[in-house]
Amino acid sequence: MKKWLLFLLFLMVSPVWAKVYVDITSPSSARIGIALRYDGLSVKAFRNTLERDLMVYGIFALYHPMEYGMTKEEVKVAGADLYVTLDSSVLGNNAKVAYTVEDLSDGSVVAEGVLSFEVSQAVGAAHKVADVIYKVVTGNDGMFERRAVAVRKVSGGYELVLVDVGAMKYKRVAFFKRPALSPALSPDGKRIVFSLMNEKKDFDLYLYDLENKTIRKVCSTLGPDTAPEWAPDGKGVYFSGYLSENNADILYCDIATGKVKPIVRGISIETSPTVSPDGKKMAFVSDREGSPHVYLLDLSTGLSYKISSGRYDVSPSWSPKGEEVVYASLVNGGFHISLYNVRSYTGRVLFPGKDPTWSPNGDYILYVRSDGLYISPVYGSSGSGLRLFVGKWLNPYWR
Amino acid sequence: MRKVVVFLSVLALLAIGCAQTGKKTGPSVKQEATATKQAEAKAEKGAKETGAPEEVAKETKPYATGEAETSACELKRFPNIHFDFDKYDLKPEARRILTEIAEYMKRCPDVILTIEGHCDERGSNEYNLALGWKRANEAKRFLVALGISPDRIITVSYGEERPLCFEHNEACWAKNRRDHFVFCRGQCLR
Fold first, then answer.
1. Which residues on chain B are in Cβ contact (under 8 Å) with A395?
2. Contact state of B126 with A201 under an 8 Å Cβ cutoff
3. What's the pTM?
């Protein structure tokens, strides 16, 4: 973290974001052509990460005019829409990158800035530039500066990992022989709450502090405590736990005191709470009608109604934009990610997968298939998805 | 007079018969009383070890009959019971196995049972952990209804985390939707 404090940033982004090249919410397969020109001393990690970020976004076609000795005009004819110049210099451990994003259709500069950083922080700097380019093109915020957290099932146990989605890298933060599930990053990104089986084979909620690298038990009830989701203020978590031995209910646990209070109680299974960004509503899973479905609860009135339309629906995740909930639905024997719009009351099936979580900007879904961790844009035609990592992945969470 | 003689003879014969019966049964009663005392002591010890209340000891009295029971109280294995997809109600076969388990636990009062609830791979981990818990507790409720103290039964849920079978088909999933029974003595998971 200290390194991040040393990470000096001088960002001078052009305030002109008026033109939007791609409406990310409309289905389209046309990619925006980005020509990348590197001047000066190139920082390899910066370049690799930037190009990987742009690839993971999935809406760009990259051109390298310098490799083929192409002029601006030639690369424009070849299909580039934007011309990005990256002028780098390195002095000892410090690097500086000045970037310019030029619209090739009229020659106007649509974004520019200078980044100063330690060479070891080149990945973070590249994420910033990639996110600037994404914002120029779509008008939406980028997403690669925030990490995701997930569980990897490995031989002999479970790894709690932080995922740098854009760089397609992950880092183990803890390993457990017993099952560790459902990690959730705190709103400030500094803590992970997750469910861990203890020595008595019961699941409790634990808190991992990313700065101090410490772990402690924070909430425990009469049965398996699972599916924690942070309240927007970061002071407590909603989760599935047991005030009686019979049924899993939605409860709230104050992180500082460990005190638990009921939110949704019933004679059925209630689990997987996810809270709207304003903290006023919650989606959760209940089998009150026999099979699990997703319900929407108004936290002020306590009224809830079913929003999922499948036969078996689990794992809801509320969009950071606030209007949509995705969940996993069993369709023809396999799980698919489905989307429900809380304003229009409409839903649709997106693509195969389970355990969905939104990107921080609400434009992408990170999710799991049996063979790995995937990312797909929520909108548009990208049914195949991009596999970020192979292996057995569980419960990704990206906010 | 003859009638009186016949009546006295019958009485005498009955008296002899009863005395012989008493001789035969005398040592057995003593033996049984000793065995019962031993069983009570054992049950008390077991109750102390597991923290179980006295009712555990009461359960043992009618069943404690000596050394034969010692081997009968070795930690046993019972078959898993299975469930339909997304269900936790007990099938007839499951009830039969649980009835056998109840008899065994009544015979062996120092035995503690852990019921592990498991699910197949479909669904979310979170829902399956709750479902596995339901499955384990449904079996526990059945055993308690048969007279087993709830203090002797521990329930845990593994959800879908410990499959027995790793293929992705119904035959395999059916094996994984199960309650697994683990017996132990002493503190076990407490």
1. 125
2. no
3. 0.83
Asked if A370 has any chain B CB less than 8 Å from its own CB, the reply is yes
HEC string for A12-65: CCCCCCCCCCCCCCCCCCCCEEEEEEEEECCCHHHHHHHHHHHHHHCCEEEECC
Q: A107 exposed, middle or buried (CB, 10 Å; 0-12, 13-18, 19+)?
A: exposed
Q: Which ipTM value was assigned to this complex?
A: 0.89
Question: Dihedral through CA B116, CA B120, CA B122, CA B124, nearest 10?
Answer: 10
Cα of A397 to nearest chain B Cα, Å:
14
Give the pLDDT of chain A (399 residues) as one tens digit per residue: 444 434 444 444 444 455 667 666 665 667 899 999 999 877 899 999 999 999 999 899 999 999 889 999 999 999 999 999 999 999 999 999 999 999 999 999 999 999 999 999 999 999 999 999 999 999 999 999 899 999 999 999 999 999 999 999 999 999 999 999 999 999 999 999 999 999 999 999 999 999 999 999 999 999 999 999 999 999 999 999 999 988 899 999 999 999 999 999 989 999 999 999 999 999 999 999 999 999 999 999 999 999 998 999 999 999 999 999 999 999 888 999 999 999 999 999 999 999 999 999 999 999 999 999 999 999 866 557 899 999 999 999 998
Q: How far is it, in rounded angstroms, from Cα B5 to Cα B1?
A: 6
- How would you list the strands of the sheet with A32-40, edge to edge? A60-63, A32-40, A82-91, A94-103, A109-118
Hunting for tokens 């803590």 — which residue is that? A191
> What residues of chain A lie within 8 A of the CB of B136, using their CB?
none
Residues with Cβ within 8 Å of A212's Cβ and at least 6 positions away in sequence, in order, are none
Q: Chain B: which residues have CB within 8 Å of chain A?
A: 86, 114, 116, 122-127, 129-131, 133-134, 137, 155-159, 161, 168, 189-190
Helices B92-107 and B125-145: crossing angle in degrees, nearest 10, is 60
